[in-house]
Amino acid sequence: MISKRKPPTRRIDINIPTSTSPPLSPPSPLSLPPPPLNTSLSLVWDFGAAGCTGWGIEAMNFVIPLASRLPNIGVIVGDPCPGSPKDDEMVMTGLQLRRNSPTYEILASREPIDIWISHKPPTRFPRFPYRGLVTFEQRPRYVIGRSMLEVDSLPPEWVARSEEVDEIWAPTTFVERLFLQAGVPPEKVHLVPEPIDTALFDPAVTKVEPLPPCPVTPLALPIPGRTADTFVFLSVFKWETRKGWDLLVRAFVEEFGPHEDVALVMHTYLYGDADPRNRGKAERLLLRYLRDEGLVKEDDTPEAAIARDFPHAPLGPDPTDPGASLLGLPSVAMPRIVIHTDEVPVAQMPALYKAANAFVLPTRGEGFGLPIVEAMAMGLPAIVTAWSGPTDFLTSHTGYPLPIEGLRNATGREFRPEQRWAMPSITHLRRIMRAVFTNREQAAEIGRRARQAVVERFDRRVILEDVVLPRLALIGARLNSAPPAANGVHPPD
Fold it and tell me: How far apart are CA 167 and CA 144, in angstroms?
């Protein structure tokens, strides 16, 4: 049962540094200036059926700026992510390799391809002859594997398949260490951070508009009773244990009462479900968790009466509609939680972030954390677990690192019994969420610093010029100076 309480009047500080604190350092420069880029290199970027997943969006943010520098480039993808900015969609459509397409015919005539980038888990790294959406008979002269993982060790099959590529591109130092600890030679593993389109994710140009498919509020998020003062915590994730949605809900419900002008919006989908966008199904899962954990009590208690009378409570559901909202039950004494499962086009995601005041994700593990960096690029203060990939970009200067209480065995069919992930601290999560809710000006300053750091380090043009092009130039120089090895494999630098 959640007791009635008044909002705190005291100021809560959590040791946020002043603006004189040092910003994140830029990526380490190459020891020697790279050779000029050979723009005649042929390159295939293979990300298969990634589509609008985080992997697919990441690949697009690599390929689109790269295409302006390398004319002989093609992509293997089932369907490029729809709903992207129109210019990006045009570029991806022109690069897509399909049987009998001009781009494919040109590249196939130039076999062997110079550089092949496989943007997949290592178990799906290519073998040649390649028989996929298109066909390539010969092994490319140089094969790069781009991959990531969210737990503390690589499975043996990943290590074995990594031997079949010439080098590995890791998005974070966390993933880089995983490959090195597994015995992959250091000269074969390279840190290549994930790029972000900071021109798209820019709060200065983003308009807050109603999101599809129906205009529910002028502030883009369907929050019952929202006022100009409502503080909105936003979390963006796929519904799975690794993302820590259970920890987030527990912390929010235990820390805030139904009388407080605060809301938690979870933009999500049911990962692996046949009906992933069914909001009613997601809400039933949430309510079952709240009831099983004893976090709500539905009876004639004073708390239930408060919830019934509180104007923030939505209307009750239609029990005959399986997709109806169930969190509108007036007897649920809890702060507002909104589950948003509607698919939002990439081009409109900035509006979703701008409709919130803070971002929160108590994840158990990330290879990188695309929604986190998108939120930071939109100037949101981000509360994120201080473990795995996000430690490369989220510090106490640019966000709110969430301490962990050690590691636990990871669960889920994609993980092995010996693999572990983090256990974020619910106690610290409650305290930080309360501090961000209370000290809003301080949080906004953290958000401004976050955007500056992302623009300086992770903008897709920065990653292209400072990391990708120099690396491709070095590879190209080696390909031009060395004869092909007998097995077609060129040892990495």
Answer: 5
Which pLDDT band holds residue 429 (cuts at 50, 70, 90)?
A: very high
79 neighbors 109 (Cβ within 8 angstroms)? no
Average pLDDT over residues 361-377: 98
Q: Which of these ranges, 313-322, 402-411, 468-477, has the smallest mean pLDDT? A: 313-322
> Cα-flanking dihedrals φ and ψ of residue 299, to 5°?
-155, -165
**CA–CA gap between residue 244 and residue 240 (Å, rounded):** 8
Architecture of domain 43-195+459-481: 3-Layer(aba) Sandwich (3.40)
What's the pLDDT at 317?
42
The kind and range of the H/E element at 409 are strand 404-409
Distance CA 384, CA 206 (A): 24
- Distance (Å, rounded) from C-alpha 166 to C-alpha 475? 10
The pair of structure tokens assigned to 320 is: 């005959």
Which comes out higher in pLDDT, residue 319 or 437? 437
For domain 231-458, the CATH class is: alpha beta
**Which whole-number Å values give the CA distances from 167 to 4, 125, 182, 215, in the listed order?**
58, 12, 14, 47
- CA–CA separation, 120 vs 439, rounded Å? 42
Same fold across 43-195+459-481 and 231-458 = yes
Torsion of CA 266, 271, 275, 280, to 10 degrees: -30
DSSP labels, 5-34? -PPP-S-----PPPTTSPPPPPPPPPSSPP
Quote the tokens at residue 411: 């669960």
pLDDT higher than 80, residue 419: yes
Q: What is the pTM of this model?
A: 0.86
How many Å apart are CA 76 and CA 50, to the nearest integer? Answer: 10
The helix/strand/coil state of 219 is coil
Question: Whole-angstrom Cα distance, residue 384 to residue 390?
Answer: 8
**For residue 65, which of 465, 415, 339, 345 has the smallest C-alpha distance?**
465
Segment 110-131 mean pLDDT: 95
Burial class (CB in 10 A: 0-12, 13-18, 19+), 319: exposed
Confidence of residue 334 (pLDDT cuts 50, 70, 90): confident
Domain boundaries, the chain: 43-195+459-481, 231-458
More confidently predicted of 3 and 391: 391
The pLDDT of 420-445, averaged and rounded, is 98
264 bridge partner residues: 233, 337
Count of C-beta atoms within a 10 Å radius of residue 186: 10
- Average pLDDT in the chain: 84
Q: Can you give the pLDDT at residue 432?
A: 98
Distance CA 459, CA 438 (A): 31
